[in-house]
Amino acid sequence: MAFLQFTEGASQPPTASSIPKQLLPNIVDGLASIKPHGDFAFIPKSYTSYSEGYRRVAYRDLASAVNLAAWLLTEKLGQNAERQVLAHVGANDIGYPIYTLACVKAGHTLVSLSPRNTKEDHAALLEITRFKYVLTPAPPYSPTVHTILEGASQKPEIIHVPTTFELLERQSSHFPYPKTFASAKDEPLVMVHTSGTTGTPKLITWTHAYAAAYSAWAQEPPPPGCENTVNFLRKSRCFTPFPFFHAGAMFITLMDSLVNQKTNVIPLAGVPPTAQGIVEALKLVDIDVLNLPAPFAEQISKSDEMLNSVTKSISMVTYGGGDVSEACVNAWISRGVNIAGFNGSTETSPYPLIRPLEGWKPADVKYIQLHPVVNMKFRPTAITDMFGATLVRNSDERTIQPVFHLFPELMEYRTKDLFSPHPTDPGLWLYRGRADDMINAASGLMSNPIKSEQHISRRPDVAAALMVGSGRYQMLLLVEPADDTVSREEFVERIWPAVGEANEMYPEDCRIARSHVLVTDPEVPLRRAGKGTVQRAPSLDLYKERIDRFYEEAGDGKVGGNGSVEPYKVHLAMKQ
């Protein structure tokens, strides 16, 4: 096998064995036993500055922190207490995987909550999970804790727990975990929620069987002439700025890092990650792979200075949580760095991908080739050249896809992701967006806004762009400036060449007229998910009244060939 495995069901730390599926707490204790000095992570010594450098966290440190947290939870909630759902709100660091595994050992389940949730989001998740306790460090409390309490009809109890640094400063005795995979596979590992990109966050409970299925995917042998892209990550040192409360970070820092013995290098825990912060971090510690949210991959690629700095030592950059532009991909490739996108969701997990042994042709880098074990079927949609991706349950119980551990009653799972086939290679597919993203114009024409949004957002003075127009004859561009000190008129003047170029990608009925550019209010930024991507549905809901009013004032006519709108007289309808 490609990864270490351990005995289970004993009160002592596990020893190496050959059990095909395992529980993550056993893997942690096992690694601490046979590879105590192996690197689990490198974390900044300070919450807010890189000036103090990084500290190393070995497997024995991780196991000790998990055991200490489990003992503390047992002390607070009682030995053999009824299983509780425990919300965790802490610094953006490895405390999330630590408390996830500590809750499992202590017989409870952690629910990870995003600080970007509204109080209504938190209230909805509280209603579903019925969590009675919030694990968080001693006051002052974070804004997230206050938001949870404000939205709760029944206030959860606050349990003060040590910070990650405090857990790592102490050595703990082993906390026995005598469960076996067979007995615990259907028990919860952790509760996470979707990012809310297309609406209200949905709660997902990953079981141990789900985690094992995800880990097993990566171990499937590739077809002849191919290699698994996960090979780039095995035993590598990876910088990961995904927020730890997000499912993406759970996959990377909890499952991938343990199963593939990958070392996590993380950013500052006390300030939001930024592209410039990534540049600063990489000056202090050597890494092999950059695991980036798509917005960061895009932002760094726009700056020659940042790109030159971060590509000095890395061999690969991966991106997820969204798509990137072709210009972004080309910028990374031009620096001699491999780049690969990972697709998937909180429900499905990232899909195992393969690539030819000789590597991709540069023109094909944005395409993905799924491992046959994924068993994805691409079915025609109403949109020309776009196919809906549907997972079909494998008949072999050994290779059942993770999503069917969440929904065991299903034989198929429609992902709502849209792909287009490669023009000459039938095994390659290009991600085109979500079915929820498509714009259904009043003319009956379906339009994919992603290309236009990506092209316009490539400009450094654009923070985000959304095309709007479902049920309308005329498309509208909702755009957020990177600098809100520039006047609206000057901003539109600057970005219009990029909008014009984007228009060339679409038929006339789907083009943006100069009169239909709505600049966001600096005091009302577009909603973003924890991974940094713009939440389309919540953002459009946020601006619904302004969009409706804009159409009332600017009109909803037909776009002429010169970019004018007919038959209405148009004007800018922006807040001055």
UniProtKB/TrEMBL annotation:
Coiled-coil segments: none
Residue ranges of domain AMP-dependent synthetase/ligase in the record: 50-352
Entry keywords, A to Z: Phosphopantetheine, Phosphoprotein
Pfam families reported in the protein's UniProt record: AMP-binding, AMP-binding_C_3
Taxonomy, superkingdom: Eukaryota
SUPFAM superfamilies named among the record's database cross-references: Acetyl-CoA synthetase-like
Keyword Phosphoprotein tagged: yes
Protein name: AMP-dependent synthetase/ligase domain-containing protein
